[in-house]
Specification:
By secondary structure, the chain is an alpha+beta fold. It has two domains: about 110 residues, Type I PLP-dependent aspartate aminotransferase-like (Major domain) (Aspartate Aminotransferase, domain 2, 3-Layer(aba) Sandwich); about 100 residues, Alpha-Beta Complex (Aspartate Aminotransferase, domain 1), CATH 3.90.1150.10. It is built from seven helices and eight strands, in the order αβαββαααβββαββα. The strands form three sheets. Strands 1-2-3 form a three-stranded mixed beta sheet. Helix 1 packs across helix 2, helix 5 runs parallel beside helix 7 and helix 6 packs across helix 7. The chain is globular.
Length: about 240
Amino acid sequence: GNPTGSVLDADNIRMIIGFAREHDLAILADEVYQENIYLRGDRFTSLAKTMTEMGEREVSLFSFHSCSKGFLGECGQRGGYMELRNIPADVVGEITKLQSVSLCANLTGQVATYCMVRPPRPGEPSYERYALERDTILNELRKRAMLLADGLNRIPGIQCNTVAGAMYAFPRITLPPGRTDEDYCMALLEESGVCVVPGTGFGQVAGTAHFRTTILPPTEKIAAVVERIAAFHAAYAAV
């Protein structure tokens, strides 16, 4: 997921549901990267499906999916949906009212969303082309994920978990005394041209420092990006 690039398993999902029930919280499940799974054996686990299997009828769930993200990446189409479960009727009414005063989704966005939720199936004329395009995109993203994480882990003072899903890496960085990840990220941009996001905005553990980056640069440029970060980090840590 975003920002860590990790994949939550069924036990993780059940823990989240249990925590939400215990503390009377609603769950907002942004599941746009459900196809972006890079490690063999990992699977996307749906919060809605898990809640159904648990017989959960109290925890409110808002699930989101969009063709703007995931392996489709059709950002300009603005197509997607929100599914509601265990939501009070008055809240559903307010959401419906809010949506009713907006223009309807554009035609291409609706078509893209339909293609996302109902892709070609085996035996249908377009399935082989669809499967080839999907697998080509996901295999390329998998390659980038491995290259980026491996490259970052070779830099002294940087530790990066395996990028198991989504499009992000969230490496932990060792900083000189008195420096923050915000200082680091701004200096990295100004001195090397590499743009990353400070971990401060993602609820990182106090006393730690991270930055979020993506696996979107072309495969042939990943090594150059890592080299720039390595050179910058060595100089920054020496100050």
